[in-house]
Amino acid sequence: MGGIIKALYPKYLELLKELVEQESKTEDKEALDRVADIIESFSKKEGYSVERIPFKKAGDCLLITLNPYAILPHILFTGHMDTVHPRGSFGEKPFTVAGDRAMGPGITDMKGGIVIALMVMEALKKAGYDKRPVKLFLISDEELSEGLTGDEGRSLIIKNAEGAAAAFTMEGDTEDSVVIGRKGSIRYRVEVTGKAAHAGKEYGKGISAIKEACLKILEIEKESDPDNITYNCGIIEGGTSVNVVPEKCVFHLYNRYWKIKDLEYLRERVERIINTSFIPGTKAAFQVIGTRPPMEPTEANRKLFDHINKVSGKIGMGKRRQAMEACGSDAAYTVLGGAPSVCNMGIRGGKIHSTEEYAYPLSMMEKGELITYAILEMDDEGIA
After folding, report:
1. What is the CATH number of the domain that holds 196?
2. What does pTM read for this prediction?
3. By residue range, what is the domain housing residue 197?
């Protein structure tokens, strides 16, 4: 199998370059649809079944299937085609190579993972694998927590995970680990209103919205626990002039939690504090502007990790490191769909979400071989 993967590598390195050079920020539907065009055309040439799911505001989504008529429970790969980088962030040549590294927008998060999934599908095809359908579902707005595809996008991931023997989310591998659990998140926009006044002559008549916002933020964040629920105010904006008691202040919260049951407590606490006036005369209103459930570390996830770890040792790659991560991914929805799930199965790299984002292209061969063998080594009952 290693020989098949090695022979495929140049072809998939070229695909990686093509995808990275097609920049695709989440809100740029035109650019994302061009990414979908590239992948759709490539997949059809390989003989796979391709379904394109159109969206008006978001980029179109893709479902690509090898062995669509196989009868055993399917294997699912999930990934996203969007990045956080506006066009031009990496200069005129988005894809560059220096030594054993390649740089470019979304190369690790997560176009490299998409390429590995397609490489595995071709390796399985060349090996004559026909026991299970192998599906790759690609969403277009993961970086906004499906804020554009909405419930339809989330439901598509869950639906495709239902009944799967295993689900591999192809996020970039930044810590050389296999992830079995991730935190969920909820984001708030909070607007505080006070009363404007001259900060000198009529200071006593003013009511500071900024001061009230700060008191709320301090009260919310004082319970943050890196090992449990965290509360973070990442943006605060307010005031009109240095000599005016500020009438308005807006702040944004990004809160994270490990267990679905924790969300009720988190929401009750945050919303109670938002609705409490620490300074008489102030008021506040809030919006929930984004949510993502946690990827809970189920027993099925642990069994899938154990299977991957066993295969890794068998083929001479050594032991894998099991991990939990505090940031979210669409693996949350494959777990909700009931599939044994692991994340961070994509290309190895680092500095994601920055203009120094990089990857090690040669890691595609290692990951491709590992996942291919993990699938081949499943018996008819899967990983039980």
Report:
1. 3.30.70.360
2. 0.92
3. 184-292
